[in-house]
Amino acid sequence: MPELGRLTARQIAALAGLAPFVRESGKWKGRAMVAGGRKSVRTALFLAALTACRHNPVLKLFRDRLVAAGKPKIVAVVAVARKLLTILNAMIRDQKPWQTA
């Protein structure tokens, strides 16, 4: 994604297809789901998020907190993927390496 570091967190999440979109019509209320964006980027981030949930203590704690709050596990992993993308965007924007705190 050449846009990394130049867009806001919301814009980069929408571009990658990780921003939640609510599907509603009239009285029908649906769930928010991620869609659109670049499928290859979304897939790569999802796989990276699965690994991060197991081996990165910061993102593992984030996922565990979401699951403890009652979120489905797949929703928690997608949230980790979006957080990972946001972290990568900030790292490239600020030209700084990963910091845990």
From TrEMBL:
It comes from the Bacteria. Signal peptide: none annotated. InterPro entries: Transpos_IS110, Transposase_20. Residues 8-61 form the Transposase IS116/IS110/IS902 C-terminal domain. GO terms for molecular function: DNA binding; transposase activity. Pfam families: Transposase_20 (PF02371). GO terms for biological process: DNA transposition. This is Transposase.
